[in-house]
Write a structure and sequence with these properties.
Layout (H helix, E strand, L loop, with lengths): L1 E7 L3 E6 L13 E5 L3 E14 L14 H7 L4 E14 L10 E2 L9 E4 L2 H8 L8 E6 L7 E4 H4 L4 E4 L6 H14 L4 E6 L8 E2 L5 E2 L2 H5 L3 E5 L13 E2 L2 E2 L5 H6 L1 H4 L3 H14 L3 H7 L2 H11 L3 H17 L3 E2 L6 H10 L3 E5 L6 H28 L10 E5 L3 H4 L8 H7 L6 E7 L7 H6 L2 E4 L5 H7 L6 H9 L6 E6 L6 E5 L4 H8 L6 H14 L1
Parallel strand pairs: 10-20, 10-21, 11-18, 11-19, 14-15, 14-18, 16-17, 19-20
Antiparallel strand pairs: 1-2, 1-7, 2-5, 3-4, 3-7, 4-5, 5-6, 8-9, 8-23, 12-13, 21-22, 22-23
Helix pairs in contact: 8-9, 8-11
This protein binds adenosine-5'-diphosphate and magnesium ion (MG).
The site of adenosine-5'-diphosphate has 17 residues, from α4.
Length: 535
């Protein structure tokens, strides 16, 4: 492509493009390699400049038809400069070993050549999918047909995010990532499937039907529904789930504050009633008669008007959120827990109850209990690693994540806790959101790997890079992504930032997921040896 002519470690390098390389064939975000004398530098194109070495030439601009003059000037008087940001370096002699790659600590000498990344460069950095490893291919670098992998073992160790404005492919990309996790058995997943698109059949924008995880992975996945009366929207054999009043806690009302229009006074009154009636507080508020309210107020110095208003609002909530029942015939959340701890995965579909109130309430109640159980299981295991098993990693997937992780609620919500405590208890989040700026910045800075599709709003773009050094170059790249299926990925599981054209989630993909992994005899022996070595 050309040679390095100047630059600095802190600001990046400048490549002078050779005359026979057309600048229009280059786009920002491209993955290129600089070959120094001893070291290769893996870099990204972060800016493109048109330059002239003598401004006088611009006094006589050649007319558009005058290709002869233009050709003469090109390469002598005018030229293109490409700004490159190097991320990783590797010794030229170490050809293969993945762990010989390190962060850049120096710059290549003058006149080092630059070329477009090749298949073995991509594999050296991002790895290759093999039966025995947890690499999963998620797409291609732009303008290349070489599969690009993500290391799912690393991916599930932290909470991760998929961002992008509506219609850019968040749900599709999330399905690809979740399929990878299931196929490679990197973790169990629990998906709060607000729009009924992960569990069973979903539809694309052009109304084609899209398979859900249950169709791809069979009984590795259990599907639950909160809306059993509308099974045409969900998986028809989904297990019905109801939630009893005594599972609701004040924390849930705090999350729903905006949705229900609760004032601070209303919440204070709810807390007051909870102190008196403990586990039964919710059903108590819903059912108190006027006489009981008067008596309660007289004894506790509460305000009748506030309690009546609270009662009205909670009764409206109960009417609209049909899965909430005074008592339930069986403990459905326990059943979900059992599936998860036995290594299966669960998708919870909302059917037609897919409004925000309903989504926030159920997701929060269930996650609270599951998290508490994983904390128990992990602590038990840490106390006696010979007697107990470490719980299998769990990835909890939520859409509209800013509702659970806004600065107002992230401090106390279970989702905020999970994001902050990293992988301590083997539970992490996959958050899917179109408005990252609505998420608390402390939570944002804890996100391990970020996959971001196109975003336009400046606040959202800034939020994506909270806690990431050197985000400025990447911001331009993010705002220039194609509106569909193009993702900028960076963070913990990605050795360096990269633009990815996401893998298509289509019949070809379904086939690959269904393919039985037939192991050869040698592979079985090697797996056994690896397992033995781990012990
Ligand atoms: N990886 C992909 N494979 C196939 N189609 C995709 C992919 N990504 C996006 N699309 C197309 O883009 C549309 C919007 O994607 P979707 O994931 O529903 O967006 P979002 O969840 O961000 O609103 C889909 O209906 C589909 O047609
Ligand atoms: Mg979506």
């Amino acid at each position: 492509m050309g040679q390095i002519i100047s630059g600095s470690f802190s600001r990046g390098l400048l490549l002078k493009l050779s005359n026979d390389f057309n600048v229009e064939d280059l786009r920002i975000g491209k993955f290129v390699v600089i070959e120094g004398e001893k070291t290769k530098y893996f870099s990204m194109v972060t800016d493109i400049l048109l330059e002239t070495n003598n401004p006088k030439f611009l006094n006589h601009i050649p007319s558009p038809e005058d290709s002869f003059i233009k050709d003469v000037l090109k390469g002598s008087a005018v030229y293109s400069l490409i700004q490159l940001t190097p991320y990783l370096m590797v010794d030229l002699k170490d050809k293969i070993a993945e762990d010989s790659v390190s962060r850049v600590k120096t710059v290549p000498p003058h006149f080092s050549s630059v070329y477009e990344a090749q298949e073995d460069d991509i594999e050296q950095i991002f790895g290759k999918e093999e039966k025995l490893n947890k690499n999963f291919y998620i797409g291609y670098p732009p303008e290349m047909e070489i599969p690009l992998c993500i290391n799912l073992d690393k991916f599930v160790q932290r909470s991760n995010a998929v961002f992008g404005k509506s219609g850019t492919g968040k749900s599709f990309l999330s399905r690809v990532l979740l399929s990878g996790i299931l196929k490679k058995d990197a973790a169990s997943v629990l998906v709060f499937d607000m729009h009924n698109e992960y569990g069973w059949q979903g539809t694309s924008e052009d109304n084609k039907s899209i398979k859900g995880l249950r169709q791809l992975f069979g009984d590795k996945i259990e599907v639950f529904t909160l809306d059993p009366e509308n099974k045409s929207y969900t998986f028809k054999d989904a297990v019905d789930l109801t939630i009893s009043y005594n599972q609701v806690e004040i924390e849930d009302l705090e999350l729903l504050r905006g949705e229900l229009g609760l004032s601070e006074a209303a919440l204070d009154h709810a807390r007051m009633i909870q102190r008196s009636f403990e586990k039964d507080w919710f059903s108590k508020i819903c059912n108190m008669t006027l006489g009981e309210i008067e008596e309660f107020c007289a004894q506790n110095g509460a305000n009748i008007g506030s309690i009546l208003a609270l009662q009205r609002k909670l009764n409206t909530l109960v009417d609209s959120v049909k899965y909430l029942k005074p008592v339930t015939s069986y403990d459905g959340i326990k059943k979900i827990l059992n599936f998860l701890t036995s290594g299966k995965s669960v998708v919870l579909q909302f059917g037609r109850l897919n409004n925000l109130k309903s989504y926030i309430l159920a997701s929060n109640i269930i996650t609270r209990r599951i998290h508490a159980e994983y904390v128990n299981l992990t602590e038990q295991y840490l106390l006696d690693t010979t007697k107990f098993q470490e719980p299998k990693k769990l990835v909890i997937t939520i859409e509209e994540a800013h509702k659970f992780l806004s600065p107002q609620v992230a401090k106390f919500s279970t989702f905020g806790t999970i994001a902050r405590e990293l992988r301590k208890y083997n539970v992490t989040l996959l958050i899917i959101d179109q408005r990252p700026s609505g998420i608390d910045s402390e939570v944002l800075s804890q996100i391990g790997t970020r996959a971001t599709l196109l975003l336009n709003d400046e606040n959202d773009i800034n939020a994506v890079f909270v806690g990431e050094s050197g985000g400025n170059n990447l911001k331009t790249i993010l705002s220039q992504l194609n509106p569909k299926q193009e993702v900028l990925m960076f963070g913990y599981a990605m050795p360096m930032p990269i633009v990815v054209r996401s893998r298509r989630y289509d019949s070809e993909f379904y086939k690959e997921m269904n393919k039985e992994e037939k192991l050869t005899k040698e592979e079985i022996i090697r797996r056994g040896e690896l397992a033995a070595a781990e012990l």
